[in-house]
């Protein structure tokens, strides 16, 4: 018990230190951006100091239109991520479990996967115009591959002895997916989700900016059109915060769901 | 019961042909405790995997409960050599033991009772809420045995289950397997490379030759049913039997 308590406090201590260091680093960065324009290293008109950005951010959160845009962005992002996740997991498990299908689709996947989502922008504009649907297609396309690749690796990672065990105890194919393949793949699914979340955010903002579907990206474009430089920066800060929050959320889910996994669990072996 | 008829198995792949099993024929009657001994690499694991329906034979036939094996047969449980990898790390001990029953669609209360009984039989009633990776090797192997007996098999296959545990734990587990066999009345095929273990445990020892594998000797172990690590192992008859098996193994290791 004492050892466990000591270990826990050590871990908490480490986490506390890394959080403190991270905050200090961020503060230093903000300070540099505050000073640089003021001493004339960068032109103050195009790179406003941090304090001014924060003031515009404060103004933004008082406006209803900002919150509408934020909700639009969050909705597109979350919806795209969900579709990509479900499709990636289902297709990934199928591909991973059926070597024949995997071999038949490998080349096609290797061809489609490197296509940058933004290259599809002209296509989706023709198809759906400047709508959320257009942006959603980009988001799903980009995020899907992140999930798929991870899931296929995850399914391939099933331990041969675990597979034999499940077969010998006559688990049905569905029970094997449910009780063996899925738990083995879960760490990979979560990694895929984390990668997909950041890619999906990038494409949500890109789509809104370029295609003009409603959201933070469109607000950035509007602010830029009306020369509101500080607002542009304030909105960019918002997108950064979204990314950080997404990462924190995934790590939280990871710790909860993967408590059994070697990367998460405390290695404390009880003696015989 | 188990029947192995002219089993022949060749691994053929990656440009390498290995004859794992030459020509094996033997049968194990209902309820017998039979040990299979043979040098490392003589095809013991291969034999078990064919019996468990995990691997097709190249030629010959195996029958479990009089039915030719083409897929994992019902009523057969396996305890694998790599117990650490055979237990699922994401399930607690009780869930590991219950999983095969749950997958069969057995009601929660029934499988709970079977799991509790099996864990009690292996002396692990206290550990049901732990994860396998929190347990020592010997305890993990007990969980694997509990999972096998909760499944209520007619036939139990064990592949060098104690090769990786320390001597004291090993002695305890040997006695545990004897008691499980006596209590649940299964047909038990126990594979080992340890001659002492085979003679101590079985009613019969089947000695395999080195590759190409055949049955080199089939020996009845006429030791009393009540066995004890101290008295049985110092019994003159035990020494005599283990001497016979030992001599046979030496002979098959160095063919003329
Ligand atoms: N999957 C496999 N592919 C090719 N050769 C194998 C495979 N499994 C086992 N062998 C070979 O078959 C022989 C018997 O192996 P095995 O049944 O594991 O022996 P044992 O369990 O008695 O040590 C060995 O020579 C081994 O190298
Ligand atoms: Mg082996």
Compact overview of the structure:
The complex is a heterodimer of chains A (272) and B (256). Chain A is 79% helix and 0% strand. Chain A is mostly helical and 272 residues long.
Keywords:
heterodimer, A: 272 residues, mainly alpha, MetI-like fold, globular, B: 256 residues, alpha/beta, Rossmann fold, 2 domains, 6-stranded mixed beta sheet, 25% strand, binds magnesium ion
Q: Which ligands does the model contain, each kind named once?
A: adenosine-5'-diphosphate, magnesium ion
The coarse silhouette of chain B is: globular
CATH H-level superfamily of chain A? MetI-like
- The largest sheet of chain B has its strands arranged as 6-7-8-3-9-10
Distance between the termini of chain A: 17 Å
Give me the number of helical elements of chain A: 10
Q: Helix and strand string of chain B, N-terminal first? A: EEEHEEEHHHHEHEHEEHH
Under CATH, the topology of the largest domain in chain B can be stated as: Rossmann fold
Average predicted confidence as pLDDT of chain B: 93
Radius of gyration of chain B: 18 Å
**Architecture of the largest domain in chain B, according to CATH?**
3-Layer(aba) Sandwich
Structural class of chain B: alpha/beta
Gyration radius of chain A, rounded: 23 Å
InterPro entries (chain B): AAA+_ATPase (IPR003593), ABC_transporter-like_ATP-bd (IPR003439), ABC_transporter-like_CS (IPR017871), ABC_transporter_ATP-bind (IPR050166), P-loop_NTPase (IPR027417)
Protein name (chain B): NitT/TauT family transport system ATP-binding protein
Domain ABC transporter (chain B): 2-235
Keywords (chain B): ATP-binding, Nucleotide-binding, Transport
């Amino acid at each position: 018990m004492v050892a466990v308590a000591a270990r826990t406090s050590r871990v908490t201590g480490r986490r506390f230190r890394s959080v403190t260091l991270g905050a200090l680093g961020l503060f230093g960065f903000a300070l540099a951006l505050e000073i640089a324009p003021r001493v004339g290293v960068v032109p103050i008109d195009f790179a406003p100091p941090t304090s001014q950005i924060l003031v515009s951010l404060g103004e933004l959160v008082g406006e209803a239109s900002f919150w509408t845009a934020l909700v639009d962005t969050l909705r597109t992002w979350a919806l795209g991520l969900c579709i990509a996740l479900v499709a990636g997991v289902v297709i990934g498990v199928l591909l991973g479990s059926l070597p024949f299908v995997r071999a038949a689709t490998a080349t096609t996947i290797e061809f489609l996967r490197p296509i940058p989502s933004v290259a599809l922008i002209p296509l989706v504009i023709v198809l759906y115009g400047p709508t959320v649907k257009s942006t959603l297609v980009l988001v799903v396309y980009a995020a899907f591959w992140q999930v798929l690749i991870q899931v296929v690796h995850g399914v391939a990672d099933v331990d041969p002895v675990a597979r034999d065990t499940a077969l010998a105890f006559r688990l049905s194919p569905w029970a094997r997916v449910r009780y063996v393949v899925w738990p083995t793949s879960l760490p990979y699914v979560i990694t895929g989700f984390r990668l997909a979340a950041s890619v999906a955010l990038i494409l949500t903002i890109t789509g809104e900016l370029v295609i003009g579907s409603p959201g933070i990206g469109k607000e950035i474009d509007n602010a830029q059109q009306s020369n509101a430089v500080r607002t542009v920066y304030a909105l960019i800060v918002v997108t950064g915060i979204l990314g950080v929050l997404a990462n924190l959320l995934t790590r939280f889910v990871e710790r909860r769901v993967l408590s059994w996994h070697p990367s998460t669990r405390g290695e404390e072996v009880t003696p015989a | 019961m188990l029947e192995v008829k002219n089993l022949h198995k060749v691994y053929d792949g990656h440009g390498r042909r290995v004859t794992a099993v030459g020509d094996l024929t033997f049968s194990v009657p209902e309820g017998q405790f039979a040990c299979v001994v043979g040098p490392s690499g003589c095809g013991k694991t291969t034999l078990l995997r064919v019996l468990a329906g995990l691997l097709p034979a190249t030629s010959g036939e195996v029958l479990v409960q009089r039915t030719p094996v083409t897929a994992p047969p019902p009523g057969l449980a396996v305890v694998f050599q790599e117990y650490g990898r055979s237990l699922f790390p994401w399930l607690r001990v009780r869930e590991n033991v219950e999983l095969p029953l749950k997958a069969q669609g057995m009601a929660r209360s029934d499988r709970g009772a079977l799991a509790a009984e099996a864990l009690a039989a292996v002396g692990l009633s206290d550990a049901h809420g732990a994860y396998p990776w929190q347990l020592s090797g010997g305890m993990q192997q007990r969980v694997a045995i509990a999972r096998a007996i909760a499944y209520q098999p007619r036939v139990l296959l064990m592949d060098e289950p104690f090769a990786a545990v320390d001597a004291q734990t090993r002695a305890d587990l040997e006695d545990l397997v004897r008691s499980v066999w006596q209590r649940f009345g299964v047909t038990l095929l126990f594979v080992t490379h340890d001659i002492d273990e085979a003679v101590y445990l079985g009613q019969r020892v089947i000695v395999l030759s080195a590759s190409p594998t055949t049955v080199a000797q089939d020996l009845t172990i006429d030791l009393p049913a009540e066995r004890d690590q101290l008295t049985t192992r110092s019994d003159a008859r035990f020494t005599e039997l283990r001497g016979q098996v030992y001599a046979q193994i030496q002979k098959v290791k160095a063919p003329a």
